[in-house]
Amino acid sequence: MAVAGSERVLLQTSGLTKYFGGLPALHEVGLSAERGQVTALIGPNGAGKTTFINCLTGILQPDRGSMTFEGRELSGLPPHRIARLGIARTFQNLRLFSGLSVLDNVLCGLSARAGDSHLEAFLRTPALRHRERRLWLTALETLDTFGLAERASVPADALSYGEKKRLDLARAFVSNPKLVLLDEPVAGLNPDETERVGTLIRQMRRGGASLILVEHDMDLVMSVSDHVVVLDGGRRIAEGSPEDVQSNPLVLEAYLGKISATA
Amino acid sequence: MSAARAAKFARRHRMGLSVIGLSVVLLPVPLILANPWQLGILNLVAVNAVVVLGLNLFIGYAGQISLGHAAFFGLGSYGSAILTTAGGIPPWAAMPITAVGVALTALIIGVPTLRLSGHYLAMATLGFNIVVHHILVHWDPVTGGPSGLTGIPPFGVWGRTLQGEAQQYYLLWGAAMVALTLSVNFVRSGLGRGLAALAEDEVAAAAMGVDVRRGKIAVFTISAAFASVGGSLFAHYMGTITPDTFGIFASIDFVIMVVVGGLGSLWGSLAGAAFVTILPHLLGPLEDSKDILHGLIVVVVLLVLPRGLVAGLVDLAKAQLARRGSAVATRIVQG
Fold this sequence. Notes:
- The complex is a heterodimer.
- By secondary structure, chain A is of the alpha/beta class.
- Chain A has two domains: 1-86 and 177-263, P-loop containing nucleotide triphosphate hydrolases (Rossmann fold, 3-Layer(aba) Sandwich); 97-171, no CATH class.
- Chain A has helices spanning 49-56, 79-84, 102-108, 111-114, 118-123, 126-145, 161-173, 191-206, 218-224, 242-246, 249-256; strands at 9-20, 23-34, 38-42, 64-69, 72-73, 87-89, 179-183, 210-214, 227-232, 235-240.
- The longest helix of chain A has 20 residues, at 126-145.
- Chain B is mainly alpha-helical.
- The radius of gyration of chain B is 21 Å and the shape is globular.
- Chain B has a two-stranded antiparallel sheet.
- The A-B interface holds A 57-59, 78-80, 83-84, 88-89, 91, 95-100, 104, 107-116, 118, 120-124, 128, 132, 135, 171, 175 and B 182, 185-186, 188-194, 196-197, 200-201, 203-212, 218, 222.
């Protein structure tokens, strides 16, 4: 379906392959994510979803294949460079800066934008003060959006699990990135909190954000996604609209436990 | 209205005002404390504070470890001493030239060693210190060997060289206040937050756009420059330096000062430098067992006040107040 080179395509991978000790965690995975859309990546445990995200963000280097973001090749770039291109992410296991305050966690999400020189930092020049003030306001605004404004000065460690999940989202969205990779944003949340995160994701999408969503919660996936890609055993086994994917026999087979060829 | 503006001003310039407040407290000390020996100890506190502030950026903020900062302190001392005695360069020029040289050395050392972390980084920096100490002891023609260098000129201000402990006091504490201001500014910038982030979680920090490797190398270089400036101040203050001052035990003492003061607490660094520098002198005859005592202090501080002297005592005070507050609240509710 994806028209290569189209302005609508934000991120495109082709033939993306990653081996772990000879076993393919990803095998020839092609995916394209369009601007302003939610692209869901689903599949059973061990399907390669997190590996895919780790390759996109430079934490892992793929063995083969290409990943282009706005026409620019990502493989070989270190994680911070990829982040600075406008790709933000959340983490399945949170990875918050637990000793820092909630506000500082979100401010760290703006690091790429701060761009201070060491001299400015040591002298705390008026220009830096001015910039810090703007970042601070942006951070507070984002905390408010994610329902954490009252918790701004609390150490991230002291938050409830649900709040931590939202802080992880806030930290990713605060920099107004071009693409956000969400790695299981509702894992471990109760139905109320899941609904709350779902609402936030829809709100971000309405605000024009482009998202890749990795998630096991099918209700969430089906309700927020524009396009769904299904991985199993490191291979892409299906893609299409949420409705198409739900009725695809290959997907049902993968989820209902028939052993796939590569497992 | 003007009260509100004053409050706003105080809030916005809280750090600057705190530094000024501390300076005001420190200003009359030489007038009150006439004993030059005691003033001399306070002067060493200021020298150590400059080193410890820089080291705290590396250890306390960036979460790394160095057991080799006495080497940078020593290179600063010897660099300044050699440039002024053999090179005839004035101390004010020798200090920045040396600091740049030491920073470059740290950069060269840092690029390969900062790939390491934890125990490995501790061992690598310790090894560096041993090498530097060895060179200082054995390269007689340049370093004067075990007996070191003498006749290092003191700093001069407006053509007059500083004389006596009181005049040195103002120079050294002035330098310590500048170091404090610079480091307090630095940690409140985006770069400072980046360091705090990478100390917590390198992968997450990189995903936020923090250049982890560059950040670590930069802060290592900066902390070495601080140590070098401390070394220059020390050399021009003492007039004589020997290699003994710059061995691995000095490095460990600096780390102890950081830990006692509190990791990541810059105000604590001053307290840590003061505590560890002054304590042995208060012990009189026990001075010989200084190393044992330093070890004990660290153990006790880590057990009782793991966040360091300043933050730890503030926490204790807060807990005490909260307890008293809740007791009052209970009484009100019951009454």
